[in-house]
Design goal:
heterodimer; A: about 180 residues; alpha+beta; Nuclear Transport Factor 2, Chain: A; Archaeosine Trna-guanine Transglycosylase, Chain: A, domain 4; 2 domains; five-stranded antiparallel β-sheet; about 30% helix; about 30% strand; B: about 800 residues; alpha/beta; nine-stranded mixed β-sheet; four-stranded antiparallel β-sheet; 38 helices; about 10% strand; flat; MeTrfase_RsmB-F_NOP2_cat (chain B); rRNA (cytosine-C5-)-methyltransferase activity (chain B)
Chain lengths: ~180, ~800
């Protein structure tokens, strides 16, 4: 486990900022203690300093996970957000999409969001903007990228994709083995 | 995609009994589905009955007036259809019916019915039940009629043709008018129609009568059953007598020639238990209780398919009356329960959301504020959006208990020693409201994946997940406020989940599990910081109900460490055994709790809560003892064989421990001389390496499985004897695979310092110099405290010792190389 290099930090924050914008600051400077990011097994974990100290007792090969896993670095040093980061993305998300109850299940199986399943969408969402996907009851279900801007969304036909799927909570079950 | 998301059916955790057990919604729901299906026709039938009765009400007058509507023609049509039917009727079949009707009109309905019913009863058994259109409600009557008709039909097959012809001829006109089921007349349907007709003629009464008759029939059956029961009991008793008289011959006969059917076995079990419960009055003269028991055991094994070993254990555990209940309870699944994740939602909201999804649920019980029982569900409970977004966790009711007993407080440092699949861990986190720190450990890396998944899914952020063998944990980290040890076990409490346990377990499995549990419980206790202001608690639980894995293990811990039992804080459950067969456990053992499937409708479970009241003394005790015994060994390596015989006195082990571990130091010190003798044989037993002990008689007594060590130490010991303090350091280490490694070593070191190579002093200690010993203890205690009450101190200690150890080892290696 080690702190991120500058390069890695930059890559990761760029990715994060697609979803939560400048709210990243809130992740790092928290009123309830200092929190930090650490890299372990190519995965980035977000944890409080207290837990970090505790985790130092555990040898590297025996350590499986600390705090919350945000995502992982691919072999090409790109950062990929995991669904496990949703708990921190959702409260700070700038752009949101709400799904109709009927299309929740489809999204949870890993499908893109179609216009027909779109309940609501934040105003002024740009194309390719990272969005967090909610159910109409405001339960965060995952995140993705807006395929169209809000204006276009109003006009397109019902079967066209409006949000590209990136991660959904169904992965907790589907990809349990690869979460860490 | 559209692939069915079925989280529970995929075996995700690799091999292992528990992973199989964790199969959630699907498998458990499966049992509901057949119920529904079977239930559905019943419901339908009742409705059908009502409908039929209504129909009858409507039609009755017309039937009386007009004969044809036999076929269920609607009222308007029946009139003008009459002639056609008439024609045919005249031929034959209607004649029959007419005759029937006349008959009925003329005679008492009831009489006839009774007759029919009787026929029915007699014939029913043989009837196949493939009736398509037949309404189930009036099935039986239909059957009757069918049979009657069949009789008729047998005589004249033309009837069928006639019917068909009639239908065809009338079909053009009457296709619409006919009842939906009247189109193509299978014999069955014909029967059904006839039955309907019958009903019509008989009116409402018939229905009532039907029911009555059924009931009567039932009663009769019951009566007959009862009669047979009585007969059986008599017979069974006779059987017993017989079997007891001629056990060999008869058994062989029975087993060899005709395998007894389960019913008779079950009857015999019941009778046998009855006799055994009132043995003095019901016994047969000259028959021993053991004979009855042997037969009972054999029968139970056959009936419930257990192996003899397990059943014997269970018979020891339960009174006979309870035994069958228990075995029966193991045949049915426990209800599916879920736990609300209060980090994300509230129980009321969750219940509402699930009800909206078509889940039928209820609160679990008064004792839990987060549990919900799921009766049935139209969706897989393990894959709802609520589940995926972490609002609840599928978890057996029994798994709530240890965590509730642990009652972790906010801001504490908690260890979950065998965490997978994370249900209890997340419950702990939820009780701590995501504050403090939790270390979730499990020995199985595959199963840890589910821990990671569940921890993240439920939004738990204060958890470190690691993959150590629990036995080594105090070396990694200690100073926890609370520790939850859900020890791996034989699983005899969860036979309902995993029936393989019935046959797969034997003595060695239990022993192995118990041994592992003893090691784990000691290491768990060593991980606790007794000085913790809020905690210092260990909760030990297993899903086994064997005494060997529960009370015995706890009793062992009570003897080995400074812990005491405290109430677990739950007001239900059965008290643990304080005495079991030849074993006598500590009287406070009744503070532990046992949970059984038959009495609590949850998995069989054992929960014990221990409070550690001193960090130092137990380890000091052990350390000293070891030193005491070591010293002579170190100086004279060959003395060990002499000591061994003295160690063999195992009875001592029990006595001093019992004397009252709570009473504290003096006594323990007083028994110090004895204790080492106790410990050593254990050490030997523990160490799996046979040859080592042979090689290193003196040192290898407690040696770790790590091969080279003893070999290294041997020369050292010799060398060290001059250098007082060092021996103290090293020897414990050599001996010490026992989990209290670093601490003991430290203490040993201290001892070395204080004693300063005066081995003569040790005998003094041995001779129950209470004051000295207590002083020493206090010193150590103070020392410990000085180092810092905060929990880091032990860790530091471990670090330091680790280094020391390493240095020493290298040193030794060097020396050895030199030699």
């Amino acid at each position: 486990m080690r702190p991120l290099t500058d390069e890695e930090t930059k890559t990761m924050f760029e990715k994060l900022s697609k979803y939560i914008g400048e709210n990243i600051k809130l992740l790092v400077d928290r009123p309830d203690g200092s929190y930090c990011f650490r890299l372990h097994n190519d995965r980035v974990y977000y944890m409080s300093e207290k837990i970090l100290k505790l985790a130092t007792h555990i040898s590297r090969d025996k350590l499986v996970s600390v705090g919350t896993c945000f995502g992982k670095f691919t072999k090409t040093i790109k950062f990929r957000l995991h669904i496990t980061a949703l708990d921190f993305l959702a409260p700070y998300a700038k752009f949101k999409v709400w799904l109709k109850p009927g299309s929740e299940q489809s999204f949870l199986y890993g499908n893109h969001v179609l216009k027909s399943g779109l309940g609501r969408i934040t105003e002024n969402t740009m194309q390719y903007q990272g969005v967090v996907v909610y159910s109409l009851t405001d339960v965060p279900l995952g995140f993705g990228v807006a395929a169209k801007c809000t204006q276009e969304c109003r006009q397109v036909d019902p079967m066209s994709i409006v949000v590209f799927h990136q991660a959904d909570v169904g992965e907790f079950i589907r990809n349990e083995d690869t979460l860490t | 995609m559209g692939r069915k998301l079925d989280p529970t059916n995929t075996v995700k955790r690799g091999p292992g009994r528990k992973s199989r057990k964790q199969k959630g919604a699907e498998t458990e729901l499966a049992k509901f589905i057949p119920d529904e299906e079977t239930a559905a026709p019943k419901r339908l039938s009742s409705r059908g009955r009502k409908r039929a009765s209504k129909r009858v009400l409507k039609k009755k007058p017309k039937d009386v007036a007009e004969e044809p509507p036999k076929k269920g023609f609607t009222d308007e049509n029946s009139k003008w259809l009459k002639p056609t039917t008439r024609k045919r009727k005249i031929d034959e079949p209607e004649g029959d019916d007419d005759s029937d009707e006349h008959w009925e009109e003329e005679e008492d309905d009831e009489e006839e019915e009774e007759e029919e019913q009787q026929q029915e009863q007699t014939k029913k058994g043989g009837k196949d039940q493939g009736k398509k259109g037949a309404k189930l409600g009036i099935k039986e009557v239909k059957e009757d009629d069918k049979e009657e008709e069949d009789d008729d039909d047998d005589d004249d097959d033309e009837m069928v043709d006639d019917y068909g012809a009639l239908d065809d001829s009338s079909g053009e006109e009457a296709a619409v008018e006919e009842d939906s089921d009247g189109e193509e007349l299978l014999p069955i349907e014909r029967a059904a129609k006839k039955a309907k007709k019958l009903k019509e003629t008989m009116g409402l009464e018939s229905d009532d009568d039907d029911d009555d008759d059924e009931e009567d029939g039932g009663k009769e059956k019951k009566k007959s059953d009862a009669d047979t029961d009585e007969e059986d009991t008599v017979q069974a008793n006779m059987d017993e007598m017989d079997t007891f008289r001629l056990p060999g011959a008869e058994e062989s006969e029975k087993e060899g020639i005709l395998p007894l059917d389960l019913k008779t076995i079950y009857q015999r079990i019941k009778d046998n238990i009855d006799v055994l419960c009132n043995f003095s009055s019901k016994r047969e003269e000259g028959k021993d209780r053991s004979e009855y028991l042997a037969l009972l055991k054999k029968d139970l094994c056959t009936y419930y398919s257990y192996n003899h070993f397990l059943l014997e254990k269970l018979m020891d555990l339960f009174p006979l009356s309870e035994l069958v209940d228990f075995l029966e309870a193991n045949e049915i699944q426990r209800p599916v329960t879920i736990r609300t994740n209060t980090l994300k939602t509230r129980r009321r909201d969750l219940a509402q959301a699930l009800i909206n999804r078509g889940v039928n649920l209820d609160p679990l019980g008064k004792w839990s504020k987060v549990g919900l029982v799921i009766y049935d569900s139209s969706v897989p409970v393990g894959a709802t959006p609520e589940y995926l977004s972490g609002q609840y966790m599928l978890q057996g009711a029994s798994s709530f208990l240890p965590v509730m007993a642990l009652s972790p407080q906010e801001g504490e440092l908690v260890l979950d020693m065998s965490a997978a699949p994370g249900g209890k861990t997340t419950y702990i986190a939820q009780l701590m409201r995501n504050t403090g720190m939790i270390v979730a450990n499990d020995a199985n890396a595959d199963r840890l994946k589910s821990v990671v998944g569940n921890v993240h899914r439920l939004g738990v952020t204060n958890t470190v997940i690691c993959n150590y063998d629990g036995r080594q944990f105090p070396k990694v980290m200690s100073g926890f406020d609370r520790v939850l040890l859900d020890a791996p076990c034989s699983g005899t409490g969860v036979i309902a989940k995993d029936p393989a346990v019935k046959t797969s377990k034997d003595e060695s499995d239990i022993q192995r599990a118990a041994h592992l549990q003893k090691e784990l419980i000691l290491s768990a206790i060593d991980s606790i910081n007794a000085e913790s202001t809020s905690g210092g608690y260990l909760v030990y639980c297993t899903c086994s109900i064997m005494v060997e894995e529960n009370e015995w293990v706890v009793d062992y811990a009570l003897k080995k460490r400074n812990v005491k039992l405290v109430p677990i804080g739950l007001d239900f459950g059965k008290e643990g055994f304080t005495r079991f067969k030849e074993h006598r456990f500590h009287p406070t053992m009744r503070l532990t709790r046992r949970f059984y499937p038959h009495s609590h409708n949850m998995d069989g479970f054992f929960v014990a809560k221990l409070k550690k009241f001193s960090n130092v003394v137990p380890t000091a005790m052990a350390g000293k003892e070891e030193e005491n015994t070591d010293a002579p060994e170190a100086t004279a390596v060959t003395t060990s064989p002499k000591e061994k015989p003295s160690k063999s006195g195992k009875t001592q082990k029990i006595v001093p421990g019992k004397a009252g571990h709570l009473k504290g130091k003096p006594q323990t010190n007083g028994t110090a001389a004895k204790k080492p003798t106790n410990i050593k044989p254990k050490g030997k037993k523990d160490s799996p390496a046979g040859p080592k002990t042979a090689n290193i008689k003196s040192k290898g007594k407690k040696d770790s499985p790590a091969g080279p060590k003893p070999a290294i130490i041997k020369p050292k010991g010799k060398k060290d004897s001059p250098a007082g303090p060092k021996t103290a350091n090293i020897k414990p280490k050599g001996k010490k695979d026992s989990p209290a490694g670093p601490k003991k070593a430290k203490i040993a070191k201290m001892d070395g310092e204080t004693v300063q190579g005066a081995e003569a002093k040790k005998p003094e200690v041995k001779t129950a110099d209470d004051t000295d010993a207590s002083k020493a203890d206090k010193k150590e205690g103070s020392r410990f405290e000085k180092k810092g009450k905060n929990r880091k101190s032990p860790m530091k200690a471990t670090d330091r010792m680790g280094k020391n150890k390493f240095r020493k080892l290298t040193h030794m290696l060097g020396k050895k190389g030199g030699e």
